């Protein structure tokens, strides 16, 4: 629905990093690389003027959105925040049943506990990466992307 009638709109998900020719293989140890990879793809699309550019990620905190919002504002995009329009979006039991990644109810409940309900551009732009997340990773490993 958000893509509408656009011919050059695109959706980016960090999950795409884990999609291989033989299916989906999630590896938590590669999540940082996956986010870096997705941010680079989104930035390239914005540099090319694609519109809309939709980021389909599990962003529970403002700082997680910041790399995308920074580039979008720099490139003159209008930024909108959307969350699923479902009755079960905050129901850990239902989310556990519906997620395709094997995320447990307990993990989902933890994610919901840190979920930031009030999101705006100023909130995102003033957010900071928590100290426990702000660690330097080795350079992004080159891997072939399928699809």
Notes on the protein architecture:
The chain has helices at 31-47, 62-74, 92-98, 105-113, 121-125, and strands spanning 10-12, 19-20, 23-24, 53-55. It has 147 residues and is mainly alpha-helical. Strand 2 (19-20) and strand 3 (23-24) form a beta hairpin. Helix 1 (31-47) packs parallel to helix 2 (62-74) and helix 3 packs across helix 4 (105-113). The radius of gyration is 16 Å and the shape is globular.
Task: Please describe the topology of this protein.
Layout: E1 10-12, E2 19-20, E3 23-24, H1 31-47, E4 53-55, H2 62-74, H3 92-98, H4 105-113, H5 121-125
Parallel strand pairs: 1-4
Antiparallel strand pairs: 2-3
Helix pairs in contact: 1-2, 3-4
Summarize the structure.
By secondary structure, the protein is mostly helical. The protein is 35% helix and 7% strand.
Characteristics of this structure?
147 residues, mainly alpha, two-stranded parallel ribbon, globular, two-stranded antiparallel sheet
Helix content: 25-40%
Question: What structural class is derived from the secondary structure elements?
Answer: mainly alpha
Please give the alpha-carbon distance between the first and last residues: 22 Å
Q: Largest sheet at a glance? A: 2 strands, parallel
Radius of gyration: 16 Å
**Low-pLDDT runs:** 142-147
Provide the β-strand percentage band. 5-15%
Across the major sheet, the strand order is: 1-4
Taking all residues together, what is the mean pLDDT? 88
Q: Please tell me what the overall shape is.
A: globular
What is the strand tally? 4
Topology as a string of helices (H) and strands (E): EEEHEHHHH
Number of continuous helical runs: 5
């Amino acid at each position: 629905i958000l893509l509408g009638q656009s011919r050059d709109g695109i959706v980016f998900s960090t999950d795409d990093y884990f999609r291989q020719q033989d299916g989906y293989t999630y590896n938590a140890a590669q999540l940082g690389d996956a986010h870096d990879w997705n941010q680079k793809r989104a930035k390239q699309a914005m540099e090319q003027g694609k519109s809309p550019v939709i980021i389909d990620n599990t962003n529970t905190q403002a700082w997680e959105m910041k790399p995308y919002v920074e580039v979008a504002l720099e490139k003159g995009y209008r930024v909108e925040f959307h969350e699923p329009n479902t009755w079960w979006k905050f129901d850990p039991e239902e989310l556990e049943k519906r997620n395709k990644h094997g995320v447990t109810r307990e993990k989902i409940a933890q994610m919901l506990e840190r979920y930031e309900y009030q999101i705006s551009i100023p909130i995102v732009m003033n957010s900071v990466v928590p100290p426990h997340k702000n660690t330097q990773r080795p350079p992004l490993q080159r891997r072939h992307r399928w699809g």
